[in-house]
Automatic annotation (TrEMBL):
Gene name tied to this protein: Mettl13
Record lineage: Eukaryota, Metazoa, Chordata, Craniata, Vertebrata
Pfam families: Methyltransf_31 (PF13847), Spermine_synth (PF01564)
Domain called Methyltransferase: residue spans: 49-171
Species name: Neopipo cinnamomea
Gene3D superfamilies in UniProt: Vaccinia Virus protein VP39
GO molecular function list: methyltransferase activity
GO biological process, any: methylation
Protein name according to UniProt: eEF1A lysine and N-terminal methyltransferase
Family, per entry: Belongs to the methyltransferase superfamily.
NCBIfam families found in the cross-reference section: MFS_SpdSyn
Compositionally skewed regions (Basic residues) per UniProt: 434-444
């Protein structure tokens, strides 16, 4: 039996609907949104004493259920189909005497002005507004004008809709311009009983007297999980918010039916601020054979550790899911702007939401475990937050790593998943003979991290490789009597500080374009200047160009560890202008003949990376590369003379000799940092 129209225009035809309802017979046809689902929203806006008009009623049971449950009895139903009106009059006439069914076109209603407190529309606007043709939009305007006419001031137009973008936009645009308050409710679905994959929405348009001039629009959205509406500043944002919820519903539907081949990422936002509160990644592991006990689990990433390889990369999360032994693992990252009430609070907050991401075949009422490292949510303390005109918004935060170690990090919030600089914090040292604290003084919290910087520890693997590259310097002695080093890019200052402290013969010059970073490094990362350490606040391009013109061949080592602010380029370190051939020739000019140029390269664009390598080969006849395991970073060691080439055995011997010279008695040294290991994976390009 063919009930669908031949064209969208037939949705507005009385003839089509007469045919539809004759063919369908007495069976109720609910477009979407059954009464139990709509009831919580309807109860908010329909009072028992209200006079209600239902436009395009069809043979839906909605009016009958509102009547029978006592929600409201004074209900007038209209439709353009004579067949369905007669059918509904026969069905309800004697049983519901206060409710009526009338044959009437909603575009030309016969009711007096301000006759109703509520107009209810369930799918009628969606059926009318099938496209954005001029004639269709004119009919929508006519419908809205008639609804406005028959509603009293303070009355509500309730429109049940699937909220296609053009339908929502048209309704919001019309009524907000008329000075009405517009609120959009998402209707809570009933799980497996839902008829549609897409969620159902109810537009609530409340009529106010139009104020002359430009009154501010009041636009709100009320998601299914909360009663309190959220204000949005524009129609575009309201449409976008609805679209986000539709995409989420489609995603949940897809995840409930099939395993995901690619990892899915989504943000759950705070109800009050609208800012991201949780970032979820859904990871399916094909290597795990799921059973009843290991189908699904949630993993809470401890605060501050979301940037680690295991949690912050696709490959790492895949390995985590396999190691945990679950067919589907949802990792949850916590945001620094939010407050969390421990693991139990997070579990209570997320339990219902994460079940919407459950894999196919998960048994009903299955207990889903929440996992973490050490069973807690970690420690994160924001120490400093500011905005730089050059680097944008940034934070300095202390986080707890594995065991009892704490780390201080600099994060640029335009790229919040990347740690810009990191330093290990020292445990506090008790003072001998220290007097007991007075009883009235507050004891420090056991979760309060220490503040002193451990300058002997290089947190970043690429910094360790860059320092090890000094073994490639020419000359017979692995530790030259004098060492002039130029570092472009300060960050927290860990790299130049380490060279300064461990190479006592080194004179280090640092070029940093952003004066805010010098302040951050000095105040929060233990950086200081002196006779052998000088910072020049300048653009690295300009500074090196000036050096090349005035004082060539003066540095033993030049190191680039400078990030790019342009995230649209597939290379985040360094900025592309720093690896253009004319500038690299200037770098070569200020480098001594037996010196070394060390470049931290972070490039995800394979074609761009090959272009950079080709340019480096053109300028420097000897080129080594060291990939950093588990990271995108690649360290390039470039030498101006091919005579500096060393075989692996000689390189290893120089590394051991240099490390022995650096490990002076009484000087702390990170035992895990072995220079020779850093150079084992170096290859000549």
């Amino acid at each position: 039996m063919e009930l669908l129209p031949r064209s969208p225009a037939e949705f507005g035809s009385a003839r089509y609907w007469d045919h539809f309802f004759r063919q369908r017979g007495q069976r109720a046809f609910e477009w979407y949104g059954a009464f139990p689902e709509l009831c919580p929203v309807l109860h908010k806006y329909v009072r028992s004493r209200d006079k209600v008009l239902v436009v395009g009623c069809g043979n839906s049971e909605l009016s009958e259920q509102m009547y029978d449950t006592g929600m409201c009895e004074d209900i007038v139903n209209i439709d353009i189909s004579d067949a369905v009106i007669r059918q509904m009059q026969e069905r309800s006439g004697s049983r519901r005497p206060k409710m009526s069914y009338l044959l009437m076109d909603m575009l030309q209603m016969e009711f007096p002005d301000a006759h109703f407190q509520v107009v209810l529309d369930k799918g009628t606007l969606d059926a009318l507004l099938t496209d954005e043709e001029e004639a269709t939009l004119a009919k929508a305007d006519q419908m809205f004008a008639e609804i406005s006419r028959v509603l009293q001031v303070g009355g509500r137009y309730l429109c049940v809709s699937l909220a296609q973008a053009h339908v929502l936009k048209k309704a919001v645009e019309y009524f907000s311009q008329e000075g009405w308050v517009v609120r959009v409710h998402q209707v809570a679905g009933k799980g497996d009983n839902q008829q549609f994959v897409l969620p159902v929405f109810v537009y609530v348009m409340t009529k106010f007297r139009k104020i002359p001039g430009s009154a501010p629009q009041i636009l709100e959205i009320c998601p299914e999980e909360q009663d309190k509406p959220m204000r949005v500043e524009s129609m575009e944002r309201l449409v976008a918010a609805v679209k986000d919820r539709q995409h989420y519903a489609l995603l949940c539907s897809q995840l409930s039916k099939t395993p995901c081949r690619e990892q899915v990422s989504l943000d759950l936002c705070d109800k009050e601020s609208g800012k991201p509160r949780y970032t979820l990644h859904v990871v399916d592991s094909p290597l795990v054979k799921p059973s009843r006990e290991n189908r699904f689990a949630i993993f809470i990433i401890p605060q501050g550790r979301e940037t680690e390889w295991l949690f912050g990369t696709e490959e790492g999360r895949r390995q985590l899911a396999t190691s945990a032994g679950f067919g589907r693992l949802v990792t949850v990252a916590l945001h620094r702007e939010q407050h969390y009430e421990g693991m139990a609070g997070i579990q209570a907050e997320l339990s219902a939401k994460v079940m919407e991401l459950a894999p196919p075949g998960l048994p009903a009422r299955q207990q889903v475990p929440f996992l973490s490292v050490g069973g807690d949510i970690g420690v994160r303390a924001v120490r400093h937050r500011n905005t730089s005109p050059l680097s944008g918004e940034y934070v300095v935060e202390d986080v707890k790593g594995d065991g009892t170690c704490y780390f201080r990090r600099l994060i640029f919030l335009h790229n919040r998943n990347v740690v810009q600089s990191e330093a290990r914090l020292l445990a506090p040292t008790p003072l001998s003979g220290q007097k007991k604290r007075r009883k009235d003084k507050k004891k420090p919290s056991p979760a309060e991290p220490p503040a002193a910087i451990d300058k002997s520890y290089l947190c970043c693997e690429h910094h360790k490789a860059m320092v090890a590259g000094l073994c490639l310097l020419g000359g017979p002695d692995p530790l030259p009597a004098s060492l002039a080093v130029l570092v472009v890019g300060l960050g927290g200052g860990s790299l130049p500080l380490f060279i300064h402290d461990y190479f006592s013969q080194a004179h280090v010059a640092v070029v940093e374009i952003d004066p805010s970073m010098l302040e951050v490094a000095t105040r929060w990362f233990g950086f200081s200047q002196g006779d052998r350490m000088q910072v020049h606040v300048s653009d690295g391009l300009d500074y090196l160009a000036k050096l090349a013109a005035e004082a060539p061949a003066q540095y033993d080592a030049i190191m680039f560890d400078v990030d790019s602010k342009d995230l649209t380029v597939g290379m985040s370190c360094p900025p592309p202008t720093f690896v253009e051939k004319p500038f690299l020739q200037k770098v070569k000019t200020i480098l001594k003949l037996e010196g070394i140029f060390v470049l931290n390269l972070v490039c995800r664009d394979a074609r761009l990376k090959e272009s950079v390598l080709a340019t480096l080969r053109d300028v420097f006849p000897l080129l080594y590369m060291r990939r950093i395991e588990g990271e995108v970073n690649e360290i390039l060691f470039c030498q101006p003379s091919p005579q500096g080439r060393r075989d692996p055995a000689e390189l290893g011997a120089r590394a051991q000799a240099l490390e022995g010279a650096l490990r002076e008695p009484g000087r702390p040294w990170d035992s895990s940092y072995v220079l020779a290991d850093m150079l084992q994976a170096v290859k000549i390009l």
